[in-house]
Amino acid sequence: MIYIKTDSAIEALKNLGFSLSEKQIAVVCSRAINRSLYQGRTKARRQVKTVYNISQKNLNGIDFKRANPNTVTGKLFASRKPIPIDAFSPKQETSSQSIKITKRGTQNIKEFSQAKKNPVIGVSVEIKKGQREIIPYAFMIAGGAVRVFARGEYKSGTQYGFVQRHERVSNDGNDVPIKPLITISEFGSILNPKVLSEIGKEVQEFYPNRFVHELVYMIGSSSSQG
Fold this sequence. Notes:
Helix content: 25-40%
Structural class: alpha+beta
Distance between the termini: 41 Å
Order of helices and strands: HHEEEEEEEEEEEEEHH
Radius of gyration: 25 Å
Number of strands: 13
Largest sheet: 5 strands, antiparallel
């Protein structure tokens, strides 16, 4: 959690004897908080992209709630909804073709002129930048839904969430359950120590300067009206 503390700033204003009302001070603080949170949101989205192989469209859940003079409280937040693993450049190679899901969410299918003798089993993904890993039980369907699937289902209380199924549930009909795979959420991505540290540093450094800017503006406005 990242906090912006305003108590010391408000107390300093009172001690300096500035002729600002409580409401004006609250306006100064809320404006400074909002600009700082805006800066923090921008930093968060950029910093997440330096660690994770993720597109901008999957970062819109990182946002902030504005402060106002009545509460003088704002917050930076992120969606806890898991991101589909299709967002992390999945690639599947069979003996006859390769299937990729592009950043635009479309399938790119390439047929091999010669069959490969040793195709890679499963689907490879790059969640963290530069770290491509293989999910051996995952698969994609050429010309089908643009998703990465696996046989099994997600269950709470398990170590990894997804419980892989190794045999058919029934002898007839569709081989179910089959589920789309998901991975880290936007909330989880900003909890990465490197990301969280950079966001906190950005906000804490930005706020004092913005507070002074808003204060000078408010004093100037009050003087002109007086």
